[in-house]
Amino acid sequence: MKNINNYSLPELQNYIDNFDTSNYSKLNIVILRNITVEAITPYLRYLAIQMGFLPNVVFGNYDNVLQDAKSTNDQLINQNTDCIMVFTRLETLSPKLTNSFTQLDLNSIEEEKKFVKNYIVSTLGSIRKKTNAIINWQGFELPVYPAFGVMDNTRSDMQMGTIRELNDFLKLQLRDFKNSFFIDINTSRSMVGYKKFYDNRYWHIGKAPYTLEALKEISIDNFKLFRALKGKNKKCLVLDCDNTLWGGIVGEDGLEGIKLGPNYPGSAFLVFQQEILSLYHRGIVIALCSKNNESDVWDVVDNHPHMLIKKKHISTAMINWEDKASNIKQIADNLNIGLDSIVFVDDNEFETNLVKELLPAVETIHLPKGKSADYKDMLASSGFFDSLTFTDEDKKRSQLYKTEFIRKKDQKKFSGNMNSYYKTLNMSVYIEKANESVVPRIAQLTQKTNQFNLTTKRYTESDIEEFIKSKNSDILFVKLEDRFGDMGIVGACIIKYFNGFAEIDTFLLSCRVIGRGVEKVLLNASIKLA
User: Fold this and answer.
1) How many CB atoms lie within 10 A of CB 359?
2) SS3 label, residue 522
3) In whole angstroms, what is the distance from residue 472 CA to residue 468 CA?
4) Fewest Cβ atoms nearer than 10 Å: which of 5, 65, 97, 470?
5) What is the mean pLDDT of residues 40-55?
6) Which tens digits make up the pLDDT trace of 221-251?
7) Where are the beta strands (DSSP E) in 211-337?
8) Could you give phi then psi for residue 450, rounded to 5 degrees?
């Protein structure tokens, strides 16, 4: 599947119409709006298919957001709704604040702000009475040409400050309503550029302010959040070396001849490595997959004065002359992760196409030759690694996977006799009831765990907090240690109680500990508690 940016709209529509989604689960998206945004549909449908969902996109009536939220007709919004996207353009909601700001006195400004804030609260409250679906509310756009010109940014009570205040209020309200998120449309605009983001003629003709390019970027920003919530984000970045981490070929150019340093073109690779390190410190596992002499690569890693990525950052590496698809499979095996957890980055289009063909579960990013100055942005904008949580396990994930690689090597000594191997691990299991301190990690497990997740229900931190507070549910979590180290929280079970019955709502285990018998211990503890 090509990147969405590589399709024209007719090509995109043709791809969607001919794609087999018979085995895909439904993703029901409802759009409430006070503007015309129907042209966003193909972009949302494509991105949903890319994530493995069959999309169903339904629109509320034009400029009917609050009425649709309050309506007793449950055909639009109901318990089967997965996501609600809200578009409330301020120019439609409060024309005075956008078009007549200089004519307003302070009392009038306060009245308009109060109206908008009440509108937000009433809409959110009405939606939540009907559904627990994800709410993605597109924030208010800041004016490019503010009412008071260059003076506007110097005072908080002018137009820019007023709209920022409304955005801040919206963010606070969304935090109080679980599964509700702020989408900064100003970020989408900055990616596209102001002149390509709006079509003023269509705004006047049909209240359709955004170009197709704008709607595509808005869709991408929304689906970055969907990906994280639906457990489709990635946790391992596999990197080529030559012309990816540095410019040139180390086997030909030597340590001193490669391009890496403070001056262009080496500076482009330096900032690319800085972006990789940012991902590392967010808990993303780093691996190398390079056709090279191993000693040459480690010479750069160990001895080049500007090399930022060091051995301590690399969990595993396959540096040889074998095909990269086979090497990536070995990397997944070394780390005990699924192929669908991996993003592969290479400057060679043949290599990325080969991996796409042989390992379709692996996401790929092709870095085009001659575009090294854009490599950082290409990785940062992908959204593959976006997450809604950051836990203690994330901080030490690289070390956890390095230790897992050592375990795998040690396991080979036992020639497949797993029981004998497990006995040598001296495992200790700790099972406890969940409390506030573990909420982020348990939410993260529900969002990320796919291989051993018996119901694959995805929950946010606010969802987990509700389960903990409720008298009608319990959450157990399990920690594991062995002679190689502490593996942290590796599993969880959510139990619901009703009418004298106990139902296991969620039962999951990290892929790193599948097969060790931890699942039996957790299940027994859950049964005893129930």
Assistant:
1) 20
2) helix
3) 9
4) 5
5) 93
6) 999 988 888 778 899 999 999 999 999 999 9
7) 236-239, 285-291, 314-320
8) -120, -40
